[in-house]
Design a protein that fits this description.
This protein is an alpha+beta fold. The chain has two domains: 77 residues, no CATH class; 160 residues, Immunoglobulin-like (Sandwich), CATH 2.60.40.200. It is 28% helix and 27% strand. Helix 1 runs antiparallel to helix 2. The two termini are 47 Å apart. The structure holds copper (II) ion and zinc ion. The site of copper (II) ion has 7 residues, from strand 4 and strand 9.
Length: 250
């Protein structure tokens, strides 16, 4: 005779094991929803019904074993048929926040890589108090940090912790369509009179996927002035008004 608590223990172990399998195959068959519907739900039900008779329980165990066998077959089939190939689409995002009380700009940046091409979409609002409509510098900076830094003489630099422009190729600063530019140079975003702005930027020069030249763990910085594309090393774009750390979203 199996005690109710023992049955529930086995139900729990089985549920965790199944969840782990689901997690591992998640990237290929998007299995989590399916698992919740057809497996986790029934497991909860069986948990509640653990006081069943031993005979009934034996049937449940046999049924589960068959289910696991079928699932294992499906997984091995999926693996052997090449579904385990790495995904070709990668996403990252950053929440852009004001860097000090002198700024109110906020927004989002999304990075989507498909077949090696990265599309960056930046949306900001409240791009004040820098005032009028116009161009504002936008860059990916080296460090994924947005905190302020303080120099020896006490001068505070909002988002100073983000470091300089992301520049793994040791190039001079420029606009992204110029031959020489930092990898993190995104040029300018145009701000409308209502304080909003959108930039859509495409490139094959950097990546979202982990590895060389990945944007993951860096910061996107919105400046108070336009990037002139010439001044070294930062384009004379003024105060770092908004900043967001770029985090993995795939
Ligand atoms: Cu910048
Ligand atoms: Zn630059």
């Amino acid at each position: 005779m199996i005690h109710v608590a023992q049955r529930r223990f086995f139900i729990l172990v089985e549920g965790i094991a199944f969840r782990e399998v689901a997690r591992r195959v998640h990237s290929q068959v998007n299995a989590m929803d399916w698992m919740d519907q057809y497996w986790i739900g029934p497991i909860r039900k069986r948990w509640d019904e653990a006081h069943w008779s031993t005979t009934h329980w034996a049937k449940v165990v046999m049924g589960s074993a068959c289910g696991i066998g079928v699932l294992a077959s499906l997984i091995s089939l999926a693996c052997s048929s090449g579904l385990r190939s790495s995904p070709s689409s990668f996403m990252a995002r950053a929440d852009i926040q004001p860097t000090s009380s002198a700024s109110a700009v906020n927004g989002t940046a999304t990075f989507t890589e498909e077949d090696g091409e990265v599309t960056v979409v930046v949306n900001v609002r409240n791009a004040f108090p820098s005032g009028s409509a116009g161009l504002r510098g936008l860059h990916i900076h080296e460090e994924g940090k947005c905190g302020a830094t303080k120099s020896d003489n006490g001068a505070v630099t909002p988002a100073g912790a983000a470091g300089g422009h992301w520049n793994p190729t040791r190039a001079p600063h420029g606009y992204p369509d110029q031959a020489a530019h930092h990898l993190g140079d995104l040029g300018n975003i145009e701000i409308k009179p209502d304080g909003t702005g959108t930039l859509i930027f495409k490139t094959r020069e950097f990546h979202v996927r982990e590895g060389a030249n990945s944007v993951l763990g860096r910061a996107i910085v919105f400046h108070q002035l336009a990037d002139d594309g010439v001044s070294q090393p930062l384009g004379n774009a003024g105060v770092r008004a908004g900043c967001g750390v770029i985090i993995r979203d795939y």
